[in-house]
Model the fold of this input.
Amino acid sequence: MHWLSQLNQRRHWILRTLIIAATFTWANIPRPHVILGPTQIVQTRHPVTCVHTRLTDEVEPWKVLRSLEMVRTMGAPTIVEYFPWAYYEGDKDNFGWGHADMVMDFAENQGLTVIARLSGLVPEWARRQPDGTETVASYLDAEHFADFGDYVYAFITHFQGRVKYVIVWNEPNVTAEWGFRPVDPEAYTELLKVAYTRAKEADPNILVLAGALAPTLEPEGSELAMNDIIYLERMYAAGAGNYFDILAAHAYGLKFPPDDPPAPDALNFRRVELLRQIMVTHGDAAKPMMLTESGWNDSPRWTRAVSPGVRIDNTLAGYEWAEQHWSWMQAVCTWAFRYPAPQRSYGDYFTFVTPEFVPKPIYEAVREWATK
Amino acid sequence: MGDEMKRLKAQGPRPKGQGVRWLIAAVVIAILGFGIWVLGFAFPKEDEVWKRIQAREVFTVATDASYPPFSAVDANGDLFGFDIDLAEAIGRQWGVRVEFENIAYDALLDTLISDRDDAVISAFVPQPERTKQISFSRSYFVGGTVAVIKLEPGTYLSGDSLVWASGKTLAVEYGAGGDALARQWKQRTTGITILPKPTADEALLAVENDEAQAALVDAISAYSFLRDRPALTLAGPPLEPEPYAIAVSARSRTLHQQVEQALAALEADGTLAELKVKWFGEMASGK
Done:
């Protein structure tokens, strides 16, 4: 058993050598480096062009940069990006801006304007219930509105002068986005008031976007959502008009072309004109709007999708409609530029670029339209 | 140095035999663990889903009936299509009745996880990231992008697709997968002309009318179009294959085996090929 004894003496050295070798090998695996070049300028003939990126879950810096480069070369000067509260304030007042810094630095380098969507995932500490009741990540009760306000303040302070637009929450008229509770326009208006006040304290020049309502025909009292027209009316009745600079809206064309006329019982691209009418009625004609989500889908498996060619035609015609008919529309942001990984659902057919960065024909068509 | 360390040092080095005992103990534990692991395979836990199918003599299948000709609803509200026939054929193999549940595509796998249905048969593309929860069968149909050409000697796609495509006019459905593929090829070689058409059928017509040498379209459109066009054919197997498989819960090991055996039997006795001919035409049978 002499060899066992020798092995026993040597095993630590063997283990150490292996660990050092593995570390050395890992450190030397060639990876794509991210070297930011000179600041770019977006060449575009249509500044209204905008896309909603999905960089939140993109880990690798080179992929973040590649996404933004492709957005720039497509001719879109603006992006909407999501900065979930829970990702950046894991503990109260303990902020970690690493990923957000990267996204903002890279976007700046590519000459892109970022509309920051501050919403959704609520940190566990801000939704903990005294009786231990479980809450979902979109749950935020009035007692913690001030905490969200602190996050808005911290975000804008951190990116002082570098971020011009923030969206307060996302689709609050959908129960899934409101903690699976009955949606509540008056409570959202309270949240908006807190967020707006804190945003302006952080930077008086920041522009606050409200709403980002989901287009839906669900009536009041539905367990799924509330009609966006009714919801916006109730927001105004609750005094929301004093607490936003721009109204964000979502406009999906579904089966209809972009010029399909709006109607209270229709879901189409021009439904936003009904929201606009409410703004005008309440004396907000001077405020602009932004479509922070929009577009058509070309999944062969979704009944509300169109063919790929129709999707391209509708998308371009949608941008043109906004330019020609909506002087109050500052940006038309299409959902979504690229997903980090396949969704394996119809959602994949909203994108412009595959997870592997292969441009789809719609990408080429928008690039051709926006830059040539 | 603390008192405990002094005491340990005073005891001197650990006897050699003690290390060997630890090694033997570790080996015994490893052998026992391996044995238990092997026994788990030899005597797997009973598959409750398969047991239920046999007890009730009913095979419940989730399908998204919005995708003809695989699965759809007729004017009477009855389901029809290739996947419906396939499920019925599997049911016959097992001597059980088949019941269908019409579920939206995105929710199909959830019905397996929640143990609501026994299998998903719905032109379903396997999802590698779901294999901890879901088992996928062999592919029973391959969709994806195909090249369609005129039936002429020397026009088949063999070897390098870029060499084959060079010098050709390729008709495509504007914006679709074939269009994307043709654009990629065009960036990598010379002499490709892309002829976009509003629909896959119009792209295929362009080949028939000699506007293009080939059409890159989805397999389902191609099979349907080629049914009564003997002058046209597939240039080869799908360029970007999209396999369709039957999904069952990963807990249902016996059911998974039974599905595999049933598919193998239906393939061997020609039933699968017959169904493909019935719903997609000769070209889809692979003969």
The two ends of chain B are 83 Å apart (CA to CA).
